[in-house]
Amino acid sequence: MDLQQYKAEDFILNDSFVRYCLRSNDADVQFWEDWLERYPHKQEEAIKAREWLFRLGLRITPEEKEAEFGKLKAAISVADTPVKKFSWRKIVRIAAAALLPLAAATWWFTARQPAAPAVATESYTLFKAGDSLRRQVMLADGSLVILNAHSTLKVPASYNQQKRNLVLEGEALFEVAKADNKPFVVSSGNLQVQALGTAFKLRAYYYDKQAAVTLVEGRVRVAQETAVAELQPGEQLITGKAHARFVKNKFDEERENAWRSGRLVFHNASPDEIAATLTYWYGVNVKVITRKNKPIRFNGVFNNKSLHEVLAAVCFVNGLESVTKNDTLWVQPISK
């Protein structure tokens, strides 16, 4: 049968799909993640099958689970006929019959053991941007993330099932695809930003004393501790990294649009302006030092260039060099 014709009951009879659900085979996991991204209209049926497969929630190893689901597959296949398809209630009854002995044995064993603390089993995919280049990430729901340099995005395996939760360290721009009844929430520390059909930017590098939420279009709701605020396009919210101190203001939309498109422009920039721009653009703490008797100004336009390329131009024109010390990039006169 063509995979695009699959219903939930067909997915659970597919050995490869079961291994994908159990995360027991990397090739199967990669295949189904890619396939579901290409055919998003089948995600609802796949999610239904995945939820049903794990409804029993047995405390056994992945290998034991796979063996038992093999028995379940055989039980359903034997019971099925060409005349009619199974209802979900009937499938559940078959599952219970097939797995009841194992469930009872598992209950007897675990009931005799001391209670153990609950452990979160959610797995994540990590996306990291390099030291000087941003990275674009297309999520399963069609949302686009522009991840700035020195940033990490954590995407849970359950993303785009009932909800769309992400964890950010650093800075990223989110262009959010609309999906009714699937909230899109980005967390950084104790700060949460919920998109309401929008494009927004969140910045919260470890060295920043404040976090910033910038709304490019649409609407977002920002929550931190007990404080909640909504932003309109053109508004930026600044707050403390550890505690809520909400301050709204307007931002330079031209600069944000330039960042979004990757176009970096210096116009008669002073050393302080060069440092501030590089810090803003590449997510690295930059300090520029010049000789007192030799003031500098810098002009240049860079389209989607790395930090190294921009630094090379700044240093060459002004007789400077760059050195990294203690997480700070120093641009300074060439040492003799």
Automatic annotation (TrEMBL):
One Pfam family matching this protein: FecR_C
Record has Mitochondrion as a keyword: no
Keyword Cytoplasm: no
Domain Protein FecR C-terminal: 263-330
Entry's transmembrane regions: 91-109
Cross-referenced InterPro entries: FecR, FecR_C, Ferrdict_sens_TM
Keywords noted in UniProt: Membrane, Transmembrane, Transmembrane helix
Name of this chain's protein: FecR domain-containing protein
Species, as recorded: Chitinophaga qingshengii
